[in-house]
Specification:
Elements (H helix, E strand, L loop, with lengths): L3 H43 L7 E9 L6 E6 L5 E6 L3 E6 L5 E6 L6 E7 L2 E6 L3 E12 L6 E7 L7 E2 L7 E9 L2 E8 L3 E11 L6 E12 L4 E6 L5 E6 L3 E8 L2 E2 L4 E4 L4 E6 L5 E6 L3 E10 L2 E11 L10 E6 L5 E6 L3 E6 L4 E7 L10 E6 L5 E6 L3 E8 L7 H5 L14 E2 L10 E2 L2 H31 L3 H13 L5 H18 L1 H22 L12 H27 L4 H8 L9 H25 L3 H9 L4 H29 L3 H6 L17 H8 L8 H35 L3
Antiparallel strand pairs: 1-30, 2-3, 3-4, 4-5, 6-7, 7-8, 8-9, 8-10, 11-12, 12-13, 13-14, 15-16, 16-17, 17-18, 17-19, 20-21, 21-22, 22-23, 24-25, 25-26, 26-27, 28-29, 29-30, 31-32
Helix pairs in contact: 1-14, 3-9, 3-11, 4-9, 5-6, 5-9, 6-7, 9-11, 10-11, 11-14, 13-14
Length: 742
């Protein structure tokens, strides 16, 4: 009977239900919005990695001063340039309008016949067999809070020209490198001789003057004309290109030229050569327009100059346009190439990318072949001088040239490696270091850690859920299930701490016992089950069998660990790790996938157990009763009725557990060696995406390539977990629909 009181209660209840429904809906929508915001923020940080490079002309004017340009260079921000002419003039000028900032006349007794530069050290070869070296420096000051540059000249090998060829022949080509207190100079003469001299530099403590002492000098005769000549920063090799389409390698040591000349054939004559930063890679520009990269690769315990990859100019209107000059970036593995038609193309060697091209000779009048190019230290400005004595300054936007899909997910042949590999190495101690940003080892490590954790967790969690839901006594289930579920609240940092400091050393000392446990435990259970048949019925407590197994498990674990050392001495000469290395070639790291599988499997078990147990326990009882009524045993009912009915929920539990393992951070951070290797070995470590982000994000420079790639790794991890969780939810919804009518 409806009364005013009951109607008021109904209205109040309806209002509460409506409020609760909207509150729950708002909470769900808020979670979705938060996830979308995280996704879009990650995308916002990552997208700039894949933006295209651009190059635009900032200024163009006739070169200041007279004579032919022999060398050009730029200061760090591209505001002032230096020009060396065949009139022995050094001219510093403003790159925006060509105004001369300062100039200096070199007091040399002979004409300049060749020029070479190593960073800001410029070597001039003279017509009388001598050479002269100077270094240009830009002093920075801030009067009135404005940046002001003052160019000046230093003389790293002294203020006098140094004799290289005693016979006084002109130096037609030369190359210079200064490495600490040693300096190496190699040059060709007009009578086809190659001369290499090594010098020691000494600085006076009194007046800071520099004196140069000859340490060694050697020479040899050449068969052809040399077009290009280079020397490595470590003074261990010199390279030359001749007119016979050959790349010549001259090994060097402290005594001079070491051994015979090594000849490497080229597909065409080389017009230009440059060493990339660090001096480990050689870029060779050919007359047919192809650019080749060569590197020293270890083969048969010795380093061999090897062709690695090639680049072709695609911007020219006709194929086969000769390379006129190459300029390399000062801090990265990028370089620019100018061809005979005035087209400038930017490349990046490691990512094997053609970044952008620009036709610097748009009007096509006169001889606009670019003869000299130079980069600023920040690679934001590029200066070019052509044969018509026209200077052009280009602004370059090229923040992330080292990133490509091939670099992130494919094998890359890095400098110093013997073959293409997947490598993650974001930092090192040397300035010549090249960051390596392959996400494959991190993704591989993430999946590897998750797989080994699941191999440990699935049997224990699923079988435990089956016994708990279908065979365990209700009173015991009321204790066991909450106890296992509360394990999920254990801080993973504690588990990682225990794994790194206790479990990893313990597993290393009892490795044979760990594997023996895989055999001892099943045999022990079978023996226990056989013996259980003879226990009087009045002492058997159905549903409490698991409690009686606890001391059995403890005994079997103790037995396996106690037998570990005796078995190791008996079968493996007392050291299983050494035996594996000698016989199978398998190494052993203390913090490895086995340790991660054990401890992370322990962390995943509660997730899988809880969901799977709920799915098994909620199988409609009338299905079980009907199966038993038809004569099926408990095990037949479990296998043919309960498991098929609960399979969607069990699958959902496994997916949730896998997603939990994929996203785990602290355990893998503390329990592995954090080595990003591609090895499925149980005894090798790994580095996961989550652990890598946790380790490196605090040290990454904001907006740098490293920083953005770490966010890309986070986006990949987000994708992994999103896919697994979405699949789990889809299965769960299908399960609900399937059994909603039962």
């Amino acid at each position: 009977m409806s009364t005013p009181v009951t109607q008021s209660a109904y209205r109040s209840r309806a209002i509460k239900d409506t409020f609760a429904r909207y509150l729950v809906s708002a909470g769900g929508v808020s979670i979705l919005i938060a996830i979308l915001l995280i996704f879009f923020y990650l995308l916002y940080v990552v997208v700039p990695l894949f933006e295209s490079a651009s190059i635009s002309q900032q200024s163009a004017f006739t070169v200041p001063g007279e004579g032919k340009t022999l060398y050009v260079g730029l200061e760090e921000q591209g505001k002032i340039a230096i020009r060396v002419t065949d009139q022995k003039q050094i001219i510093f000028f403003d790159t925006q309008n060509g105004d001369v900032v300062s100039s200096e006349k070199l007091l040399l007794d002979a004409d300049i016949t060749s020029v070479n530069a190593a960073e800001s050290n410029v070597a001039l070869g003279l017509s009388n067999g001598q050479f002269f070296v100077f270094k240009y420096i830009f002093d920075v000051s801030y009067p009135d809070d404005k940046r002001f540059l003052t160019p000046r000249i230093e003389y790293p090998l002294g203020e006098e020209a140094i004799e290289l060829d005693e016979e006084g022949h002109a130096l037609t080509r030369l190359a210079l490198q200064i490495s600490g207190d040693a300096a190496g100079i190699i040059a060709t003469t007009d009578d086809r001789r190659l001369i290499y001299s090594r010098y020691l530099r000494e600085t006076s403590f009194i007046d800071e003057s520099i004196t140069t002492e000859l340490e060694a000098t050697t020479s040899l005769s050449l068969q052809g004309d040399i077009h290009s000549l280079l020397i490595t920063p470590l003074l261990d090799n010199a390279y030359a290109a001749d007119n016979n389409a050959s790349l010549l390698q001259f090994p060097l040591d402290e005594d001079g030229l070491d051994g015979a000349v090594i000849e490497h054939p080229l597909s065409a004559n080389a017009d230009s050569m440059q060493l990339l930063v660090g001096g480990n890679a050689l870029m060779v520009g050919l007359e047919d327009g192809e650019i080749q990269q060569w590197m020293l690769v270890r083969k048969d315990n010795k380093k061999v100059l090897t062709f690695i990859r090639k680049f072709n100019e695609a911007a020219s209107e006709s194929e086969g346009v000769a390379v006129s000059t190459i300029a390399v970036e000062q801090g990265r593995k990028g370089f620019s190439v100018a061809d005979a038609q005035g087209v400038i193309t930017l490349y990046y060697s490691t990512s094997h990318r053609t970044l952008v091209s620009l036709d610097a000779d748009e009007d096509k009048t006169g001889d606009k072949t670019i003869t000299h190019m130079a980069w600023s230290a920040r690679a934001e400005s590029l200066i070019a001088v052509d044969r018509d004595n026209r200077v052009q300054l280009f602004e370059v936007e090229n923040d992330y040239p080292e990133v490509s899909w091939g670099v992130l997910w494919g094998k890359v042949w890095y400098e110093g490696y013997d073959k293409p590999e997947y490598v993650w190495q974001s930092s090192a101690s040397t300035s010549e270091f090249e960051p390596k940003f392959s996400l494959m080892p991190l993704s591989f490590g993430t999946i590897k850690a998750a797989i080994y954790a699941m191999l440990f967790a699935i049997p224990i969690a699923v079988l435990g859920a089956i016994f708990t839901a279908q065979f365990m006594a209700p009173r015991m289930r009321q204790v066991v299930k909450p106890s296992i579920e509360i394990m999920e609240a254990l801080p993973t940092v504690i588990l990682g701490f225990l794994a790194g400091l206790w479990l990893a050393p313990y597993v290393e000392q009892h490795l044979i016992g760990i594997f023996a446990l895989l055999l001892v435990m099943p045999i022990g259970f079978l023996v226990t089950a056989w013996c259980w048949r003879y226990v009087p019925v009045r002492f058997q407590f159905p549903g409490w069998e698991a409690a009686f197994l606890i001391p059995i498990i403890i005994f079997l674990v103790w037995l396996s660990m106690a037998l570990s050392l005796p078995m190791e001495k008996l079968f493996f000469d007392g050291d299983f790790q050494v035996w594996m290395s000698d016989n199978w070639g398998i190494g052993y790291d203390q913090r490895n996938a086995l340790v991660v599988g054990l401890i992370m499997g322990f962390a995943v078990i509660p997730t899988i157990f809880s969901i799977a147990e709920d799915a098994l326990f909620t199988v409609p009882q009338h299905l079980i009763s009907g199966s038993l009524a038809l004569g099926a045993t408990r095990w037949q009912t479990l296998i043919f009725v309960v498991l098929p009915a609960a399979s969607p929920g069990i699958f959902s539990a496994l997916m949730m557990g896998f997603g939990r393992a994929v996203g785990e951070t602290m355990i893998v951070l503390m329990a592995t060696g954090n080595t990003p290797v591609m090895d499925m070995s149980l005894f090798e470590g790994m580095r996961t995406l989550a652990a890598n982000i946790a380790v490196e994000v605090p040290e990454a420079e904001v907006a740098s390539t490293h920083y953005r790639i770490l966010f890309l790794a986070a986006l990949v991890l987000f994708g992994f977990t999103f896919i697994f969780n979405t699949a789990t939810e889809v299965v769960r919804q299908r399960m609900r629909k399937r059994y909603s009518a039962l």
